[in-house]
Amino acid sequence: MTLVDAPPKAAGPASRRRRSATLLTGCALTALVVLLALVSLVWLPFDAGDTSGGRLAGPGDGHLLGTDKLGRDLFTQLMTGSRIAVGAGLGSVAVAALLGVTLGVLAAFAQGWLDDTLAAFLDILIAFPTLLLAMLVVAARSATLGSAVLAIGLAQSAVVARLVRILVKRVLAQDYITAARTSGTSWPRTVAAHVLPNIWPTLVVNLALQFGLAVLAEAGLSYLGLGAPPPNASWGRMLQEAQATFTTAPAGALAPGILLVVLVIGVNLVADGLRDTLDPATRRRRT
Fold first, then answer.
1. Do residues 245 and 69 touch, judged by C-beta distance below 8 A?
2. Are 217 and 34 in contact (CB under 8 A)?
3. Residue 32 falls inside a structural domain
4. What is the pTM of this model?
5. What interhelical angle do 145-172 and 74-108 show, nearest 10?
6. How many helices (H) and strands (E) are present in the chain, helices listed first?
7. For 245-272, what is each residue's pLDDT tens digit?
8. Which terminus of the chain has fewer Cβ atoms in its 10 Å neighbourhood, N or C?
9. Could you list the residue range(s) of the whole structural domain that residue 232 is in?
10. CB 219 within 8 A of CB 241
C-alpha cells in the first residue's frame, strides 16, 4: 500500500540511467571517505601525535601531503579526521532517528490542543540554533566529540520528528488503517505493520540528508573548539589550525576542505538516488 494514488507513468531508459548514475556517483564519493575511515582503524602512515616531520614540510620523505605547523603528517590527520566525520554523522543520525521517530509517532496520535502544542514545540526546537544548543551541552558535559554528537542529534531530532508526525498522520487517515483497527489489531502492531513500512522510504532519504548536515555541523563546532579536543584531527580543527598558514602551506586547508565537500556531496547524491528509488510515487511511476 502506498500513500500516493497518482496515475502510473512509465519511466524511460534515460530517466532510469540518470537515477542510477546519481546513486552510483554518490555511493562512490561516500565510499571513498568511508574507506579512509575504515583503513584508519587498522593502519595509519604515522602516529597521530608524531611531530618529527618538520614544520610545514612539503610532500616527500613519506609524507604524501606534507606536514602541518606542528610537524604532524597531513595525510594521517585526514584519515583520522574522516573517521571522526563518519562517526559524528552516524552518531548524530542515530540520536536524531531514535528521538525523532519516537516523538513524531507519539505526536501524530495527539489531538486538539495537545496536537497544536506539540507542533509548536517542534517548530521552536527546529528554530533553536544548533550552535547555542552545542554550547549548552558542552557547558554541561565538556567539549568532546560525544557532546558534539549529542547536540547535533538533539537539534536534528526535531526536524525528523516533525517529518514523522506529518507522514504518520497521513498514513493514519488511510482506509486500511481503519480496517486494521476494526479487525482488532492493536495500535502498536498497527504502527509496526502498517505505519512504519509506509513512511520509511521518505524517512531514509531525510536521514541521509541529515547525515550530510551533521558532518558539516561537526566540522563547524570543531572549528570553534566545541568538538573533539586535541589531539583529535577533526577536519574542522584542521581548517582552523591551517588558516594562519594558508598562503605558505595551502594543503593544510585545501585537503580537509575538499574531503568535506566530497563527503557532503556524495551523501546528498545518495539521498537523491534513494528518493528516486524508494519514494512510493516514483515506484508507481516506474511500474
1. yes
2. no
3. no
4. 0.87
5. 30
6. 11, 0
7. 888 889 999 999 999 999 999 999 999 9
8. C
9. 81-267
10. no
